[in-house]
Write a structure and sequence with these properties.
Strand content: over 45%
Largest sheet: 18 strands, antiparallel, barrel
CATH architecture: Beta Barrel
Radius of gyration: 22 Å
Oligomer: single chain
Order of helices and strands: HEEEEEEEEEEEEEEHEEEEHE
Number of helices: 3
Number of strands: 19
Structural class: mainly beta
Distance between the termini: 26 Å
CATH class: Mainly Beta
CATH topology: Porin
């Protein structure tokens, strides 16, 4: 089954290489309807999962020592934009997602028994101001409610409204990202951007028999300039199912950009988060700092970067998500996906990315992981290291293919936690076809 589906994915990629396809917009009563369809398929081979143990120390769930699985999803949907009027423009959209997993469990034990599911992903309505307020500019105000996506910055704080696992299927592909209930108000005034948001995320973990819906209510303000973005966010959390999340005040500051006008090849970014109060009287923090330099005039335009990330022992990452590149914010395709989930963790990442062609990039990531605080009975904070080699190929405007090979080596802390010290090895291939 897995072999035949992989063959089909490769055949589709070969058939459409060099060509593009997209649905045509449809005009209905002055409104514009834009349909779309996204298909994703992945094959994952992971040997010595959980460093060769039968149980994941991170989740307490059973895992297959050697995992071999296929994941796939189909996501059709549409967006609609109403006719422009003197009172603004109505907008909306809806989508559904069907997904499946076939094969062995993943390294965290979240997905097994060949699950498959289909359900609503997005369903929202909204309004944008158009020219209603000339002094503010066109579409300066936008309001929306319903099931929809929302993210801040590069996803370190808020990005993913649904924890794909268990019966959802396609846990690694993660096609479900929409928050199930939202109200979002946005203001754009040139360089100033602001969001007022009320979001409810689904964090259910079926195999752990854990049900969770966390609500985040807050505000985000950003200053966007040609040299970069400065931002700050505050939100308050509500969670009847999880006392450690209920009533938290969360504060965030961040900066991202190329702040030196004469050195545009240098990029700097940093973010700091505080979590305070709540039912658990929490006092936790997380931060990262990254420096990156692109040697644009050198063969294959290499980009070299270093990033340091720290999460305190009780920090709760809540709804962090994928920020657009490998390792952001699942730090390491083995450790970050299945072992350390951005809590009680220190991570150093050195990355080199090369650009052989405009539509092809290849890279290498090296990680060192340590625990912020040693758990009871653990004598070391050295969790281990990981090395990932990857390639991203944009075949055309519709099709992208990615490959990754990784190895993770347990440190003394991981060996004590998992009871094993085997080297974990991973191969992933991903095909996404969107039109």
């Amino acid at each position: 089954m897995r072999a035949s589906i992989r063959y089909l994915a490769v055949s589709v990629g070969a058939l459409y290489a060099g060509s593009t396809f997209a649905f045509d917009s449809v005009e209905i009563g002055g409104a514009t309807v834009d349909p779309y369809l996204v298909l994703g398929a992945a094959y994952i081979n992971h040997s010595k999962q959980a460093f060769g143990a039968n149980t994941s120390a991170a989740t307490g769930l059973g895992v297959d020592r050697n995992g071999d699985r296929f994941e796939g999803f189909l996501l059709p949907g549409f967006n609609i934009t109403g006719p422009q009027t003197s009172y603004g423009t109505l907008l909306g959209g809806a989508s559904v997602v069907g997904s499946m997993t076939r094969g062995d469990s993943d390294g965290g034990g979240f997905t097994r028994d060949n699950p498959e599911s289909i359900g609503l992903e997005t369903a929202f309505v909204g309004w944008k101001s158009g020219g209603l307020f000339p002094s503010l500019g066109d579409d300066a105000i936008q309001l929306s409610i319903g099931r929809q996506n929302f993210s801040i910055g590069n996803g370190f704080l808020i990005a993913d409204g649904h924890a794909d696992q268990a019966k959802d299927a396609a846990a690694w592909l993660g096609p479900r990202t929409a928050f199930k209930n939202t109200f979002i108000a946005q203001l754009d005034l040139g360089k100033v951007h602001a969001d007022v948001f009320d979001l409810t995320a689904n964090g259910d973990l079926d195999y752990a028999d854990y049900k969770d819906e966390v609500q985040l209510r807050g505000v985000n303000v950003e200053w966007r300039d040609t040299l970069g973005t400065l931002g700050t966010t505050y939100y308050h959390s509500f969670d009847d199912d999880n006392a450690s999340r209920d009533g938290l005040d969360v504060y965030d500051v961040r900066a991202l950009g190329t702040p030196l006008p004469g050195l545009s090849q240098l990029s700097l970014s940093a973010e700091y988060v505080w979590q305070k109060g709540g039912d658990a009287d929490k006092d936790a923090k997380a931060w990262y700092a990254e420096i990156s330099y692109n040697f644009a005039d050198t063969f294959w335009s290499p980009t070299l970067s270093y990033r340091r990330t720290e999460f305190s022992e009780t920090y709760d990452p809540m709804v962090y998500g994928y920020g657009g590149e490998w390792g952001t914010w699942y730090q390491g395709e083995i450790v970050g996906e299945y072992m350390l989930y951005n809590s009680n963790e220190k991570a150093d990442r050195l990355q080199l990315v090369l650009q052989p062609k405009a539509n092809l990039s290849v890279g290498l990531q090296a990680y060192q992981f340590n625990l912020s605080k040693k758990p009871s009975g653990i004598s070391s904070d050295d969790f281990g290291s990981e090395f990932d080699i990857f390639a991203d190929w944009a075949v055309n405007d519709n099709i992208s293919v990615s490959f990754l090979y990784g190895k993770a080596f347990p440190g003394d802390a991981a060996e004590q936690l998992y009871g094993n010290n085997d080297t974990s090895q991973l191969f992933e291939t991903l095909l996404v076809w969107s039109f």
